Amino acid sequence: MKVSGFALLLLTITFMILTKILVSNQENKISDIEERIERIKKEIDEIQTDISYSTRPKKLEEINISEFGLVPIEQKDIIIELENYGTE
Amino acid sequence: MEQNKTGLIFENIVPKNLNKSSRKINFHDENDIILDSKKNEARKFAKKINLLFFIFSLSFIVFISIKLIKLSINVQHNSISKTKIIKIPRGKIYDRNSEVIATSINTKDLYIDTKKILNKPDLTKRLKAIFEKKSKINDLLKSNKYVLIKKFLSPSEINELREIGDPSIIFQNSQKRVYPQHNIFSHITGFKIEKLKSKIEKNADERLSFGEDVWLTVDLKVQNIVRDELIKGLKLFNAKSALAIVMDVNNGEIISMVSLPDFDPNYPKTIKAFTENNLATEARYEMGSTLKMFNAALAYEFNKTLINKTFTIKNGYQITNEKIIKDDHINLETINFNQAFIHSSNIASVEMIDEIGISNQKQLFKKVGLTSNLKINGLNVVPNKEPNIWNETSSKFMSYGYGISISPMSLVASFSTLVNGGYKINPKIFKDHKSDERERVLSKKTSQKINYLLEKIVEKGTGKRAQVPGLKLGGKTGTSKKVENGEYSEEKVITSFIGAFPINKPNYLTFVLFDEPQRNTGISLENFGSNTAAPTFSKIVKKISPILNKNNYHRYSNNKVSQK
After folding, report:
1. Burial B324-361 (b: 16+ CB within 10 A, else e)
2. Closest to A57 (Cβ–Cβ): which among B220, B452, B471?
3. B3 Cβ partners below 8 Å, 6+ apart?
4. B181: which chain A residues are within 8 Å (Cβ-Cβ)?
């Protein structure tokens, strides 16, 4: 009886320790993942900022003039919708 | 064998009657006593071992428990300290298509711990080689403190500083607010440098400082086109300043708002006091003839007989004892109601208000919001300035746009009511800000008739130069003299044009204003809205209308933000 009680106690303690280790491990993993997410978010932000700088209208205009020479679409280039011809 | 006194040997004694139920009788001899004592000793020893083992187990449990408690407390402490360290990055500002207008980037600030400097002359020399403000470095290093040398270091500066390798050099993580579009949205976003903030950066600071991103109703492409054309106009007409607004007349979304001269919010220290003002909301003007369209609304709403009236304009109109107003720009002796607007007659406007009356004028101005303070969440709007005394004379002046000073944004908001079917709308700059319920303050018929008049003004009146090939639009020119030394100047004018498109069912309103244009694109030497603001309006609209139609901005799209 004494032996079985003692064994049960040891088992409980072992179980507790294992659970705690498991939980701590999981928490560490979660915080690692969160850190990685934060890092990736920062990288995305940096890339987004770079894109904003490099695709700002003035820059695109310069690229268009030097490389492509495209002409912007104006209203006269568009097929006019019938609704624009209202009753007078 | 031991015998007792009777001579009996006990081993031979046997009970006479052996009963099966009787208990076994044990007799103890010397061996038993020895055995018992050994057993007792063994028992005592076992007890001692048990006690030791119990104490050991108990200590082990207590030890483990303490460790576990410590561990959990440490975890809590760590998480608290982590949350303390994490600095929430300031929220970003986007345009309606999620183009970045303002964001924060991670940089480093340079500090020097003067107590740890190894070689002060050498460090001073090397720092001077890196930074521009050389004299400041000497002063800073003289102090016996932990001093800030420079904020927001560039990557090359960081590399150069690392090469110095002095232990006194300390890099502190920092965040810098940047505006990738430079000047384009300067008057909308404002700027933020340390604790100093302006405009949206200030008005939405509560949201931004908690890391919340903000979406605005403005469009980068449209804003860029409007700004480009306005700059061209400003240079062409040699004007002092200029502004333009593009707004959705159905839900009040501000698609574009430009004020010139502008500034680069990335370099707030270079901003001059005058350029910091957003003229579209923070300035007010006597608008001139654009206000005449409210006379048309008054006539349609209160005095329909005016529509059939003929106005004699050849002799001018004595408005005060000293002042006679004339319509020299119209080569006609008499004009009808429609012609009064097509040719922008001041005399007809005054005669109209004579018949409509002050109370009706006051009522309509109040209804459309010209006399109430316009409030836009996120923007600073100056209140309009009514005449000190609203009497017959001031009422007549107001009929052709004098005597009442209006902010451009307020004019656009009130003009929207004229063209959108008669609904009063409130302009908005935040995409997630729900539009108020629209209240109809003018009849649909009045609005339709006004749109017809606006179309005719552009077709054959003062607004001819605002025409856009392929698009039916309508609008009204405006020219007003500026007050100089208490009198109206003959040279300094404000010229403007306000137009709606497509005019059969307007979705957008565009307003262009030039302050003190010195040249124009017309034959006449005089500067009017028709030869300055109208051609600029045309150039803007022909480029932005394809973008606006493609994106169907005029439809209600409040859910767009939540999807993002």
Report:
1. ebebeebeeeebebbbbbbbbbbbbbbbbbeebeeebb
2. B220
3. B9
4. 52, 56-57
CA distance B147 to B155: 21
Distance of CA B210 to the CA centre of its chain: 14
B418 within 8 A of B293, measured Cβ to Cβ:
yes
Q: Best residue in A22, A28, A75 to probe B by mutation, most B CBs within 10 Å?
A: A75
- Asked if residue A77 belongs to a domain, the reply is no
> Among partner residues A42, A72, A88, which is closest to B106 by beta-carbon distance?
A42
Which domains, ranges and CATH numbers included, belong to chain B? 93-215 (3.90.1310.10), 223-563 (3.40.710.10)
Residue A63 lies in a domain: no
Please count the structural domains in chain A.
1
Q: Is the pTM of this model over 0.90?
A: no
Nearest to B242 by CA among B195, B290, B205, B279: B279
Q: Strand locations in B469-507, DSSP E?
A: 474-484, 487-501
Q: Which residues in A lie closer than 8 A to residue B106 (C-beta atoms)? A: 42
Is the predicted ipTM greater than 0.95, yes or no? no
What is d(CA B554, CA A83) in angstroms, rounded to the nearest whole number?
14
Beta bridge partners of B515: B241, B494
Ranking B27-36, B245-254, B383-392 by mean pLDDT, the lowest is B27-36
Q: Name, in order, each residue with C-beta under 8 angstroms of B382's C-beta and a sequence gap of 6 or more.
A: B281, B282, B283, B284, B407
- Contact (Cβ atoms closer than 8 angstroms) between residue B478 and residue B287: yes
Q: Six-digit token pair at B16?
A: 């006479």
Nearest partner of B406 among B377, B372, B378, B439, judged by Cα:
B372
pLDDT at A6: 81
Give tens-digit pLDDT for B178-218.
999 999 999 999 998 878 888 999 999 999 999 899 999 99
Find the domain containing A49 and state its range.
21-53
Interface test with B, best of A6, A40, A74 (most B CBs within 10 A): A74
R_g of chain B computed on alpha carbons? 44
Whether residue A46 is contained in a domain is answered as yes
